[in-house]
Amino acid sequence: MGALFPLARESVSRTTLPGSVRAPGAARAFVRTALTGRSAAESFAPTTLDERSIDDAVLLVSELVTNAVLHAGTRVEVVCRLQPGPDAAMEGFGPEETAGPDDVPRDVPRRPGIVIEVADLHPASTVYGGPESQRRGRGRGLQLIGALAESWGVTYHRTRKAVWFRLDAERAGSEFDAVPTSALGRELRFAETLAPIAPREQRDPTADWVDRGGPSFLAEASELLTGQLDENMVAALAGQLLVPRLADWCAVWLTTESGGLQLARVWHSDEHRIDALRVSLERHPPPTGLGSAGTSWPWPGVADSQGAGGSAVCFPLIAHGRSHGVLLLGRAGVPRMAEGVVRLSEDVARRVAQAVATARQYTRQATISRALQRRQLPMSLAHIPGVDTAIVYEPHGEGQTVGGDFYDLFPMGDRRWCFLLGDVQGSDPEAMSVTGLARHLVRLLAREGHGVESVLNRLNQALVEEDAEAAEIDGEQSRPRFLSLLYGELEPDPGGGGTRCTLASAGHPLPLRLTTRGAVAPAASPQMLLGIDENPDFHADTLALEPGETLLCVTDGVTERRNGLRQLDDDDGLSDILRECVGLGAKAVAERVRRATHDFSPEPIDDDLAVLVLEAVPAVEPQRMA
């Protein structure tokens, strides 16, 4: 409870409560303490504040705080003012003045009284009093205030809204009551408030459900919509959420790239009416510039079977200042939706708009990412006469089509072909940029006539220079990018079969050669990574692949596959796998290595995986004419 401050003419106590279900109980305890304390007795002496006035004040503040928590959802400030009578405490006031808060008018009678003010931080909502509040689904709280309080009112500020009421500490004479006694008048007003009121118009039964289950429904809607990365799925979920709980039917339009509206989803509690309703709504779409929420919309005749009509309301789907579509709700059998239903629907529309905006942003980023990733790998692999080829490529990471590993196989002219298999440190966008640089630069250098050693030396120089430039720009935040690469040239022998292979391994797992007799041996010597030394001296190895022999090239996603403390290539594990592939074609060898890598551990693979298999095949003799 806030502190009680005695002033010259009145005593004021105040407290701030969170917008939770505990706020009404805390407000009741606060007001009762303020009205039964010592300051209250001193303020109203010699008048005694009777128990009925205290009970009335506790009841009314409970109703106001409950309304503020339910409909505003913000923190609530409660102020209790104890105003003395027209004795010495009232000196200095004119005949039509009294001490009171700024929100209370000055023309109330000069009698001891209690003024209680409840303020929330939602100034945009309108407060309805009398029977109108009940028809709008707001309960009987303000009707009780109108019946029990001597005066009450609402004050709208720029950032807050305050509802206040005043109760007399002593009962007024006949000039203030329209009934013989004030007590009898109070009972009659109270009974009239609680008595059922015949509605002037048909009440939407959904309003009662909104009062009870609105907050939990919003929480459910937020949970379902959060994380949806497809805008059409968001539109479908919106229909299932709103029908039939808030509406009998709904439609969702989404904006197109050209700025128009496209009907994305129509949902009806009677599935047989969906098609007819869709046709009707497509003929009469809402305007693209719809600005205000809760705009009434003409009722489509095909929406209900009995032709009784109903109420339809439009909500723009606006997020981050941009329109993403329109949500249209319809409720049959009611000429006007209750304010609580409209307000809750507006909250749902805001969440739908945010979900659509998030899904569209993800789609844009995913499209850009896929387009960039496609450029990191070749669109197709070259066909090499006399060599059977196979590639297995599995990037690590959900939704990734390219990782830190890369490959290529392309013709160079003069019956020569080049192949490469590389691995960039990391798998982030910067790693992918290095991947694209390396693959395209190797192609360019090879087609300009550079041999294996020259290609590796010039690629190393380019990486070192790029790292130096990045260090000058980013300073200590710059990280060097190392690259392992296996690069080679193939010259098939069209006459005798087989192929001549010249290759070099720069910090890459060594390629393995499988002979027709089942012998396995490394086909290159180890050398340093690219991008470390400015003046490396790379050299190439040359071998002849006889028909039926296989060259296996892998990245460290295969050799360093772990099972506890053990790696797949410990004790020449990869050689053992390849030795069992004698007699298999290139594609079968690649699949055998891939399956063995996955089966090595029950844990999922945590790195990119790439396998390139080259198998020399016998030369095909041309058929002789008979």
TrEMBL record:
Indicate the segments forming the PPM-type phosphatase domain, all copies: 387-616
Keyword Protein biosynthesis applies = no
Which Gene3D superfamilies is this protein grouped with?
3.30.450.40, Histidine kinase-like ATPase, C-terminal domain, PPM-type phosphatase domain
* SUPFAM superfamilies, per database record: GAF domain-like
> Which InterPro entries does this chain map to?
Bact_Sigma-Reg, GAF-like_dom_sf, HATPase_C_sf, PPM-type-like_dom_sf, PPM-type_phosphatase-like_dom
Its keywords, alphabetically, are: Hydrolase
Protein's UniProt name:
SpoIIE family protein phosphatase
Query: Which species is the source of this protein?
Result: Streptomyces asiaticus subsp. ignotus
Taxonomically, what lineage is the organism? Bacteria, Bacillati, Actinomycetota, Actinomycetes, Kitasatosporales
